[in-house]
Amino acid sequence: MTEDWLEGSEKVIREKMSENKAEKTPATRGSTLKLYPLANPKGTYIFCDVCGLPAWLRCKGCKIAAYCNREHRQLDWVGIHRFLCKSLIYLYNPPARSIRKLQQQALERSILNTKLELINMCLLHGHRHLFEGNYKLIIPPALQCLRLYKMLFKAEGVEWLPAYLLLAECLLGLGQTNEAANYLSLINWFETKNKVTGTKCNHMVKRTMAKLSMVRENYQQALDELAEDIYLASEKYGTLDIQTSGGYFNMANVYFFLEREEVTNSLYKKVIDIWCNHLQSLVNQKMKTSTPDIALPIKEEEYEALS
């Protein structure tokens, strides 16, 4: 499934970039090294981290990430690579293993923790791009997340679902509704096969499916899916949690399209009340700290709730 996405993402990226030529992306700070495929050892092939085509460039910083052109290099740099370039050096080229068993175990734990931290970082920045509406920039962190999952778990499983869900949201934002539906079907299949319940993905899948139904103007189905989203989120987080507020917000959007003004305003007010309480709790938390001038970081679940 991952390979199918790699093959198709090249076309999606190029189409969207050609549509928005006036849109400028922050300049790439990292530099690149030129690759010569014929100089690779026999049977060794290097592919672009973004689209999966043969690579001609490599990141000069980590000497790991590879690209088929500078456009994809810049997309990856802005999307995620600038945040994990140095970490990839340690991950792919760890220090020489010690002969002592205890030191070897400590090194393995350190590498495992690094992988988990990078996965969380990829998901955080992916949801940040989703919240900001930068759908093209979601592609690099989502694919990097899948590569890290593959290093950890080898075969596809329920652990991969957050990255697949991020890709579904990305494709939906890029207008690729059929491809987004395919990823959502894959996620549902994984959940059914492995009897996954009580996870963050359960209610987020319902919410993404509702967004897909809204795009297809099937509003009644969207309301049914959002009702399931709110139920599952309430069961896990509570009815007044910011995670649940996303379901109320999207339901308000549906009623807005149905011209149900009274219900729409009621749901929007509920979302505002939930976020006011959440922000007030953050202010109280900040005032209790010894350094109240330091800003609290935005968490992944806050980006998710806002999307």
TrEMBL record:
<dbReference type="InterPro" id="IPR002893">
    <property type="entry name" value="Znf_MYND"/>
</dbReference>
<dbReference type="InterPro" id="IPR053248">
    <property type="entry name" value="Zinc_finger_MYND_domain"/>
</dbReference>
<keyword id="KW-0863">Zinc-finger</keyword>
<protein>
    <recommendedName>
        <fullName>MYND-type domain-containing protein</fullName>
    </recommendedName>
</protein>
<dbReference type="Pfam" id="PF01753">
    <property type="entry name" value="zf-MYND"/>
</dbReference>
<keyword id="KW-0862">Zinc</keyword>
<feature type="domain" description="MYND-type">
    <location>
        <begin position="48"/>
        <end position="85"/>
    </location>
</feature>
<keyword id="KW-0479">Metal-binding</keyword>
<keyword id="KW-0175">Coiled coil</keyword>
<dbReference type="GO" id="GO:0008270">
    <property type="term" value="F:zinc ion binding"/>
</dbReference>
<feature type="coiled-coil region">
    <location>
        <begin position="209"/>
        <end position="236"/>
    </location>
</feature>
<dbReference type="InterPro" id="IPR011990">
    <property type="entry name" value="TPR-like_helical_dom_sf"/>
</dbReference>
